[in-house]
Write a structure and sequence with these properties.
Chain A: Pfam families: DUF3823 (PF12866), DUF3823_C (PF18003). Chain A: It comes from Parafilimonas terrae. Chain A: InterPro entries: DUF3823_C (IPR041186), DUF3823_N (IPR024278). Chain A: This is DUF3823 domain-containing protein. The structure holds two protein chains of two kinds. By secondary structure, chain A is mainly beta. Helix content of chain A is about 5%, strand content about 45%. In chain A, strands 13, 14, 16, 17 and 18 form a five-stranded antiparallel sheet that branches. In chain A, strands 1, 2, 5 and 9 form a four-stranded mixed sheet that branches. Chain A is flat and about 85 Å long. Chain B is of the alpha+beta class. Chain B has a domain of about 220 residues. Chain B is built from 21 helices and 14 strands. In chain B, a hairpin with a 6-residue loop joins strand 9 and strand 10. In chain B, helix 7 packs antiparallel against helix 8 and helix 9 packs parallel to helix 15. The model of chain B has no long low-confidence stretch (mean pLDDT about 90). Classes of the chains: A mainly beta, B alpha+beta.
């Protein structure tokens, strides 16, 4: 008798848990991939620093799906089909984001139907061009050209240019083992900025480092970077 | 046979059911007198009109409202509310993230929106009911009214410090269900300056309804209102002035950011309010100068709750064996004489803070560990390295070999030989023989420092401020009843000094600042010309350390993104630029004492010191522009679309 009642109880639980499909959504599955670009060129950013948001209206309360660009400015989100508004929040990123007349950041309409590519064109204040970084003799040296893109009333000065090296591929002001910097005022020829930094002892030992050149724009919090280099030595 | 019995039972049962239902119908359908009979006033709830007829009951209601005030650092809020910003190291295995993260999330330090407005609603209801009361005496009524308004203003002040302008709701909001529309309950954010103006005007409006009595500390007084006003005006003034350094931290509607033109007006208000306390019109407040030892005297400000203490203006009081205590002493007492074996030593002041305490000749210098050529300096006594410093150092921090309760804090990191070899162990109970000997001896202090050994100091220092020397205060069961001082006279003096300095009156600023410094043993007065912005910043940091000011000060001066810039802190960063307002403070360093071991040397047994970054510290503080004003969550904005987002988030 007892065995039967336990058995029926378990059966009931199994049945209850098996048939609750009715009130659940399928998970989102449409892959939206892309990057933030300037005239087709990648904009390199700091890891986990520059956020972007998707808003979808029509479901009552409004809140964004927020993520951050990767170091190489890549967007990667999984969404439901539908129409969204895409935005980079105010004051984020080393680029000019379109604004409304009121000064608030303007949003882009994005319609998701199936997996798709989403490339966003923006105007960065500067670009770090022709970067070349090499290692040798315990030193990492890099050169680059700084191209000033925004030259109108919104133009900003260079605060500093810094060569960062790190043990891992995350290379930035917050993640580095050594850096060398030149301030904007000391840059005489923006077409040829060269920097070098000596490689400190690394524990545990490894025979490679990652390096990037970052440009800090005066009055803008987020830096813009050169592509990432992996250097063996 | 069996069946018949069952049937009879069933019929009987049906009969009972019909009788019972009839009875039910009769009861429910019955006359009005029964209605009244059932309408019994609940014995566990006191209705508003009864509560507001008796001053003792109103005080009970008010007691709850006092308890719900919010402080940035608070003794009952846990030791970790004192721990961040590299002013200390958290020696607690569960809290290492404080020194391992690389920055703060935008929602850090936010207020709980719903709890906060529930509290504001209760305050508004309190004010409404108090003013509607007919049975309270006019004097009681006015004082309760003023206390309620003080608590509301002080709470809005706390909100504006964290969130910028918030919806300013001054009456209880009641949802009219018949209208089915909430839009008139949705308040937009007020301007940041509006909230500060509100705090200032409330303080002015209520100050004369509050007692001007130095012995009233845990309830609002005239001095508390004025101290709040002075601090609020000072904050507003500095946001207006220094906000120019970070123009991105503002919103077009003024919800964040204050126009630079308003700065002087606010500084004048701050100075005037502070001077009203200083000139004695709010009660006879003065600096606590009681004990001959200046360090003990400084520590006593925070322990002495008798009428001798005329410095404390407004406190959050506690009572041992009376139901309201806190575990600050339990959590932070030195390990070797902890009242609870596994509860101690969590809050370790950093060398960054310790070396900021200046020398008695008013100059800044790192603690001398090596001479010009890089050789160790040998000290006969472990405390000699701290000699000739601001007395507040030993009053704020338990230095190695400091006396607490009846014991001596045992802090030393091991034996060091001339070639730099160190003999130490992972715990004081694990003894080792010294080089050339075979008898195991203790080779590290019972109170630390050992890297990664929690509950002992890992910087070489323990906290002294707020640490209760009363017997039993370190036990979990008893707890400590040291009061948390929210406003005190020395801060009022420093507020006045800063306001005067910003208004260009350096002589007045020097006069107020020198009073505070003299109490700390810095008897050479600063001249008017010595008062600089850096001096003001420095004085507040050392006088008000671990009182919940440092973070808000860095924010309002817009220094937070400069001092916490996210880059790691090297030893040369540590020992240079001491006293500079923009000095980096991203990682908490320690100062580890070693016993010199060389039986053939005259220096054998003397002390040497090493600046040490605890190995647990892997992150560095990064304060982004978006951190200046904490996030307003999406659910809040979704519920009230009139609320605008914070800048840079």
């Amino acid at each position: 008798m007892k065995t039967i009642s336990y058995f029926s109880l378990i059966l009931l639980m199994v049945a209850a848990s098996a048939c609750s499909k009715k009130d659940n959504y399928d998970p989102p599955k449409e892959q939206v991939n892309g990057a933030i670009l300037y005239k087709g060129d990648s904009i390199y950013l700091e890891y986990n620093r520059v956020p972007y948001q998707f808003y979808q209206y029509g479901f009552g309360k409004v809140g964004p799906v927020e993520q951050t660009f990767t170091q190489s400015g890549v967007i990667s989100s999984i969404l439901f089909n539908g129409s969204y508004k895409f935005i980079v929040p105010n004051g984020q990123g080393p680029f000019l984001w379109p604004k409304t007349a009121g000064g608030a950041p303007d949003s882009l309409d994005v319609t998701v139907s199936g997996s798709q590519q989403l490339n966003i064109e923006v105007t960065p204040y500067y670009m770090v061009r022709n970067a070349s970084i090499s290692a040798g003799g315990g030193t990492v040296s890099g050169t680059c050209k700084i191209e000033k893109i925004v030259t109108d009333a919104n133009a900003k000065d260079i605060e500093s240019v810094t060569l960062y090296i790190n043990k891992t591929q995350f290379v930035s002001g917050a993640n580095n083992i050594a850096s060398a910097s030149v301030s904007g005022a000391d840059i005489t020829n923006p077409d040829n900025v060269s920097l070098s930094v000596s490689i400190p002892a690394i524990t545990p030992a490894q025979n490679y480092v990652f390096a990037r050149i970052g440009l800090k724009i005066a009055g803008v919090e987020d830096m813009i970077f050169s592509p990432l280099f992996k250097l063996n030595f | 046979m069996h069946d018949t019995i069952e049937k009879t039972k069933l019929i009987n049962m049906k009969k009972y059911i019909s009788i019972f239902s009839l009875a039910l119908v009769l009861i429910t359908g019955c006359s009005k007198t029964d209605d009244e009979f059932l309408d019994i006033p609940p014995t566990s709830v006191i209705p508003a009109d009864v509560a507001f007829s008796d001053p003792a009951l109103v005080l009970a209601v008010l007691g709850d409202l006092y308890n719900r005030q919010l402080d940035f650092s608070s003794l009952d809020g846990g030791w970790s509310t004192f721990a961040d910003f590299s002013e200390s190291f958290p020696s607690d295995a569960g809290s290492y993230n404080i020194v391992q993260r690389t920055g703060w999330s935008y929602s850090e330090w936010q207020v709980n929106w719903f709890d906060s407005y529930a509290y504001i609603k209760d305050l508004n209801l309190f004010l409404q009911r108090d003013s509607a009361s007919t049975e309270l005496s006019a004097g009681d009524k006015a004082r309760f009214m003023a206390e309620g308004r003080f608590l509301r203003a002080n709470f809005y002040f706390e909100m504006v410090k964290r969130m910028g302008g918030v919806p300013l709701v001054l009456q209880p909001l009641i949802y009219d269900i018949s209208k089915g529309d909430v839009s008139d309950l949705q308040y937009p954010r007020a301007k940041e300056s509006d909230i500060y103006d509100f705090v200032i005007s409330e303080a002015e409006a209520i100050k004369n309804d509050l007692p001007a009595d130095v012995n009233v500390k845990s309830r609002a007084t005239k001095a508390a209102a004025l101290a709040m006003e002075a601090r609020a005006a000072l904050y507003a003034g500095s946001i207006a002035k220094y906000g120019a350094k970070t123009p991105q931290v503002s919103l077009p509607g003024g919800e964040v950011g204050i126009e630079a033109s308003k700065a002087n007006g606010y500084y004048q208000i701050a100075l005037k309010a502070a001077q009203e306390i200083i000139d004695g019109s709010a009660g006879s407040y003065k600096l606590y100068e009681v004990l001959p030892n200046l360090s003990d005297n400084f520590a006593s400000i925070f322990l002495d709750k008798t009428s001798v203490n005329q410095e404390a203006i407004f406190i959050e009081d506690f009572k041992a064996n009376g139901g309201k205590t806190h575990g600050f002493t339990t959590n932070d007492q030195p390990f070797s004489f902890s009242d609870e074996g596994d509860d101690a030593g969590r809050l370790n002041p950093s060398l960054n803070l310790v070396e900021a305490f200046e020398k008695l000749d008013n100059t800044y210098a790192p603690l001398p560990t090596t001479d010009a050529s890089g050789n160790f300096i040998y000290y006969d006594n472990i405390q000699d390295i701290f000699a000739g410093r601001d007395a507040r150092l030993a009053g704020t921090v338990l230095l190695p070999s400091a006396v607490f309760k009846t014991g001596v804090v045992d802090i030393w990191a091991g034996y060091i030989e001339p070639d730099g070899t160190i003999t130490t162990s992972d715990n004081a109970v694990n003894q080792k023989p010294l080089p050339g000997t075979t008898t195991p001896v203790q080779v590290v202090g019972a109170d630390g420092p050992v890297n990664g050994l929690a509950l002992r100091s890992q910087t070489g220092f323990y906290i002294r401020k707020w640490l209760d020397p009363t017997v039993g205060s370190g036990r979990r069961g008893r707890g400590s009843d040291v009061a948390f001082i929210r406003y005190r006279y020395a801060e009022v003096l420093l507020n006045a000094a800063e306001a005067a300095f910003e208004l260009g009156d350096n002589a007045t600023a020097a006069n107020y600042m020198n009073q505070v410094r003299k109490r700390a043993g810095l008897t050479i007065p600063l001249a008017a010309g010595d008062i600089t912005f850096d001096r003001i910043v420095h004085e507040r940091r050392v006088e008000l350390a671990f009182e919940g000011h440092y973070f808000y000060d860095m924010k309002r001066w817009r220094l937070a993104n400069v001092v916490w810039n996210g880059s790691p802190m090297s030893k040369s960063d540590l020992v240079s630029n001491i006293g500079s307002a923009t000095k980096k403070n991203t990682q908490p360093w320690g100062l580890w004492p070693y016993k010199f071991y060389n039986p053939n040397s005259a220096n054998n047994g003397k002390w040497v010191f090493k600046e040490t970054l605890p190995s647990t510290v892997t992150g560095s503080n990064l304060f982004q522009l978006g951190n200046y004003y904490s996030r307003i969550n999406d659910d809040v904005i979704a519920a009230n679309p009139k609320i605008v987002r914070q800048p840079n988030q």
